[in-house]
Design goal:
Layout lengths: L5 H8 L2 E2 L2 H4 L4 E3 L2 E5 L5 E8 L5 E6 L5 E6 L6 H16 L9
Antiparallel strand pairs: 1-2, 2-3, 3-4, 4-5, 5-6
Length: 103
Amino acid sequence: MVCSPAPGLAEILDTVPGDPARLGPDGRYGLGLITSRLSCGGRWTGHSGSTRAGHNTLAAVAPDGRRATVVINESPATDASTTAFITALDTALCAKPEPDTGP
């Protein structure tokens, strides 16, 4: 996660409701970080980015420390494609790893 002294980290993590059109109904934003609910409970915290060429990224961490980054080659053009982008992150952060059964 973010390396910062406790007071600074608390300020970074203090978010306010975000624009639902950009962050979804549960999205929050503050000092460069986005938070949103996970389907498995809790909230992810992360940041998104894009390039003029249309590439988009969304990197986040779950409350248990699991991390994921989703990268797409074309900016979402519809609500459905934006939802799919965010759902991919949710799936990565909420998926339960398969138990290691050995060789």
